[in-house]
Amino acid sequence: MGLTMKTTALVGLIVPILFLSSVEPALGCSTDPSTDYWGNDIASTQRSSPLDCCNDCTAQQGCIGYVWYHGTCWLKSQLVGKSYSPGATAGYLADMTAMCGSVQSNTDYPGNDIGSTRQADASQCCQDCSDNAQCAAYVWTAWAGGTCWLKSRVGVPVASPGAMAASTTRGQCGALQTNTDYWGNDVASTARAASSDCCADCVAHPQCVVFVHFGGMCYLKGQVGTRSTLAGAVASVVTSQCTSMEANMDYVGNDVGTTARGAAADCCADCAANAACTVVVWGGAFAMFVRGRAAPTKFPSPQAKFVYQKGWFTGSYNMVTSLQGCQTQPQATAGSIAPFHEELTMVFRGPLTIDAIAVFQPTNGAWTRTSSYRRASPASASNLVFLNNANPAKFTGGSPQGFATTDGLGFSPVAVPFSGTLQDASNPSDMHGGPGIATGAEVNILQPARCSADSCLGSFDPTFGLHGWAGSKMFVVQAQFGAGGVPAMWLLNAQVVRANQYGCNCRGMADPGGCGELDVAEAIYAGTSTLATHKYYLNAKPSPGHDAWTTRPVAAPATFVVILDEPSGTIAVQEFAGGDFDFFDVDALPAASVNALM
To answer: What is Dmax (Cα atoms) for the chain?
Structure first.
């Protein structure tokens, strides 16, 4: 079969383009219409039909699938980041259609949760996990009628009666390399009928970075040794220790070593094995971070961003001194981000799923994580509690603020773990706000420390009047929005919720903004795809902002970052990919890195 070959440079990556003169009968591949998988291209061919790409992928070393678009087959080493793309067709090699390994009964993989889906049947979780670019494994439990807990890595399996777990090789391990062996360096072996089942075994072993499946056995290896040909063997390198790859990204300097690898995914194991390595760059075209290492010195670029105009802001607002008769008095304020230098709370409205929250504040030359939340099984929070406006005291003149129940819909006298999911509108007849307002269920977050007369401004309940975050701060939220309703997240002066968010408070409604409201990502109209940001403050009218600074993250979570920095006067909202939350999942961030975000 004759062929000619040329190469095309794509921002540092040399992708071979093959022009084939004849077409052999296609091997069996399954296809998905209107589907794309971004990145991980290793070659391309020119074909008039998507079915003709199958042979090309089979013949290409490291190819596990392809995307055909306008006459070009883009051959891929991994299939992650599934998206809707009219005119595109995705194809999968026959042995890749089984995207997940065998299900392990009565097994849990604790931690590393990145989302969840509702499925009554555990077998449906595999597709949900495969459709999520960050998902490497799932655990199904009977909670809420059946829930798939999607996870960024397998972790250490533990016994859990009734739970069912499995991993997907597409996110957890690199491409399956047929007829390939990596000789030596064995650390363990397991008996598995299918090569795809070896991935979970390798990930669960603390020393394993590559496996070879041969003769019904998974040979787990502590190093990526010399590659050789072995008929019938299948090998793969574990990539779960690294974040998802960033295309067209380089980190200049600070090299601690080099290795020769044919694919970007193969670099992860080399970096993980080197104690000094925290980031790897392959070919100048892909970069990835090793999880659990030091904070990155550089963040990826945001997908969307809006920065408010800087200035020196002065004025006053009506501070509530008593809910009885809504008594107020003028409160003067001034500053580079006033009134947002005062204590703030963050409010969330459904339909919305909150996967993770981190709050950072500057201390001793760095930005330290002071509060955090993870929606996992079970949920966990540190120096952060969830409240809403369901306190029955609101019906007798008291503050509606109280701790939220696990589902966010009811009142709890004590702080309890929050499930992370907020429903759409449920009880429009309750006009006191929170879970009963017509626009969807709501919760807000505060620190667990109670207010005192000399530590908090305004009126507050002695039990549920809690502190917000004052001074400079950065809120980082990983969340997925519902397609319907008017989901939103925004910041309020903590005095607003401590008094009565939908009644007597220092904020008021619309313009002017009083003690302050910063809409981070708000769907203004039901069902629209865009999200707005607006800044309401003091006597400003009209309020600055943008009605469509970004779009709803419906298909997968996004990471929203809000920076309020007094020294620089910065107030900015940014949106990153959902997986980029990993960059912020550290105890402290270098000041220089946060300054670069501004």
So the answer is: 89
